Amino acid sequence: IFPSNSGNKEITWMMLEAGAETDVVNSVGRTAAQMAAFVGQHDCVTVINNFFPRERLDYYTKPQGLDKEPKLPVKLAGPLHKIITTTNMHPVKIVLLVKENPLLAEVEALQKCYRVLDLICEKCMKQKDMNEVLAMKMHYISCIFQKCIAFLKEREDKLDGFIKSLLKGRDKDGFPVYQEKLIRESIRKFPYCEATLLQQLVRSIAPVEI
C-alpha cells in the first residue's frame, strides 16, 4: 500500500479494507508505514497502524475448538470493530462510543468484548511478526471496558459518572488526575513485561509526577 506516501488517508483505508498487506516491504526493505513516516505522512501512518481487518474480529463470532458458543456475539462485532479501529484514543471518546451503542453499554456485553480484546492482545504478542503497538491498544481498550463495567455495576450515574470522573480537574490547576491514573494503570497492567514499547513508556512516564 505504498500510495500512503502520497498522504491520501481515504485511499490508504480503502486499500487496507480491500486486503492490502501492511507488512510487505519495498526494494529497500521498508513497509508502507515506514515509508509514509519517512516522507512525513503521519496521518497515513496512523491509519495503517490502527487498521484491524473485520474478518480477524469475526473469527471470534464462530465457535472454536470445543467451544459450544462463540466468544463474541455477532451483534457486538460491528460496534467493537468501530472502537478498535478508531484513531482517537482519548478515554472519554472510547467511553462515548460505548455509551452511544445500547448493545455495547451492558455489563455482559462489555465482559465478552474485553475478553476478546485480551485474546487479540495475546495473539499480537505471540505471532511471528509481533505487533506491540496493536497489542498495547487492545489492552488499553480492554482496561477502559473493565472500568466501564465497574461504573455500570457500582454507580447510579453509570457511564455518565465515568465520563465526569475522567474530565474532572483538580482544584489547583484543573489537571484531570483520574484520567492520568487510569492511563498509567493500564500501562502498568500490560502483561508482557519484555515488550520494548512497554519499557519505553515506563521510562518516559515513571519520572513524571502527576
UniProtKB/TrEMBL annotation:
InterPro entries according to UniProt: Ankyrin-MYND_dom_contain_2, Ankyrin_rpt-contain_sf
SUPFAM superfamilies attached to this UniProt entry: Ankyrin repeat
Protein name as annotated: ANKY2 protein
Record organism: Ardeotis kori
Phylogenetic classification of the source organism: Eukaryota, Metazoa, Chordata, Craniata, Vertebrata
Gene: Ankmy2
